[in-house]
Specification:
The complex is a heterodimer. By secondary structure, chain A is an alpha+beta fold. Chain A is built from nine helices and five strands. The longest helix of chain A is centred in the first third of the chain and has 23 residues. By secondary structure, chain B is mostly helical. Chain B has one domain: de novo design (two linked rop proteins), CATH 1.20.1440. Classes of the chains: A alpha+beta, B mainly alpha.
């Protein structure tokens, strides 16, 4: 019996050391902009980059995390169809908001890289780079130089990009977006809202382009017709 | 007794697996150690990684801790012959297996990603359940038979 309790103690010690070691060696040193939430949160009245026409009857807001593989899958597999069917046809406008999850070391850094590219009008090109070359999210390695390559390929001026990243210029904006997501009860990524209503809360799978088409068509069909301007005589 | 010892050891391993996933979900450490497939990240960041407001791994920590405590308590000399501990262990393991089955269903058919740590935990809780069921059918401690000394 005593031998058994010694075995339990030794096993607990070995497992404890193993868990501690895995947590300690989980990743490289985070760059400044990825170090975590900034001390001050800034509302610079920015509410995310949008795709689509301002007059679209439906606005979909997506809270995303650049390091999240599901977000990457959605962006690369579903979004092309959604763009064709809903955004380019003027039925829906898509708004991208940042929701960096605390379990991801480089989410904020990636969001910041996208914002710095966005400052040069290259947000969507940088988003494409980050999502379509998503292997960076699986390595746990510092992606600073890789993101710089992405930025270059996205047509970003690297000198301005470096200054923006070094300064952590948009860290407060990203944290503001994350806190906004908290207030809206975002509970994972990606989470979607249509005209302010949280979507697919009872759907037991990830939504696809058909789900969004059905949803948008339904909203459009049930929207009251726009009042027509009185005829002039 | 051997069955209960095996359950205690399995629960200890499961506890540390769940503890690692829970601490990671709370933001400790960097990228999860999961091999190159990335399945753990997909599972851990999905909307189903939170259940009733807590990370799923938290329930694993609580569950394995409960099994460990019950298994250790059942190993006290006074409890060895008491079969109610077997019933408790089977009950706890059954809850764990059902919850694991639900999570595995989500991985396979909803999230479409497999987390190796989750598979490890599923194997452990299934093993605990099997040992607990075997233990409940196995008379490991026999009551001393009454002495029948006869006087010739």
């Amino acid at each position: 019996m005593n031998r058994f309790y010694v075995m339990v103690g030794v096993l607990a010690l070995v497992l404890g050391i193993g868990v501690f070691a895995m947590l300690r060696t989980g990743g490289a040193t985070a760059p400044a902009a990825a170090a975590g939430a900034p001390p001050t949160v800034v509302d610079d009245s920015f509410r995310g980059y949008t795709l689509g026409q301002g007059s679209a009857p439906v606005e979909i807001v997506e809270y995303l995390d650049f390091e999240c593989p599901v977000c990457a899958t959605f962006a690369t597999v579903q979004m092309p169809t959604i763009k064709d069917q809903l955004i380019n046809t003027g039925k829906a406008r898509w708004r991208f908001r940042d929701y960096p999850l605390p379990i991801h070391k480089y989410s904020r850094f990636a969001a910041h890289a996208a914002q710095c590219a966005g400052a040069q009008g290259r947000y969507f090109e940088m988003q494409d780079q980050l999502f379509s070359h998503h292997q960076w999210a699986q390595t746990g390695k510092d992606p600073s130089s890789l993101f710089r390559d992405f930025a270059r390929d996205a047509g970003v001026d690297l000198k301005a990009y470096d200054v923006c990243m070094e300064a952590g210029r948009y860290a407060g904006r990203i944290e503001y977006s994350r806190q906004e997501g908290d207030q809206l009860a975002v509970d994972g990524t990606p989470t979607f809202y249509a005209n302010g209503t949280k979507l697919f809360t009872s759907l037991r799978r990830l939504p696809n382009s058909d789900d969004f088409k059905t949803l948008v068509d339904s909203i459009v069909a049930h929207s009251p017709p726009k009042p027509r301007a009185p005829a002039r005589h | 007794m051997r069955h209960r010892q095996a359950i205690a050891l399995l629960a200890l391993v499961g506890l540390f697996v769940a503890l690692y996933l829970w601490l990671h979900a709370l933001g400790f450490g960097g990228a999860i150690k999961c091999g190159a497939s990335g399945g753990c990240e997909a599972v851990q960041t999905s909307p189903w990684s939170v259940f009733l407001g807590f990370p799923v791994a938290f329930y694993g920590v609580v569950g394995y801790l409960a099994v460990l405590i019950v298994a250790l308590a059942s190993l006290r000399p006074a409890a060895l012959a008491d079969r109610k501990w077997n019933v408790m262990l089977v009950g706890l393991a059954t809850v764990g297996v059902l919850f694991t089955a639900y999570l595995t269903y989500l991985e396979l058919f909803v999230i479409h990603a497999i987390c190796r740590w989750c598979i490890g935990s599923a194997v452990i809780i299934t093993a605990i359940w099997l040992v607990a069921v075997m233990s409940s059918f196995h008379r490991s401690v026999r009551s001393p038979e009454p002495r029948t000394d006869r006087v010739a």
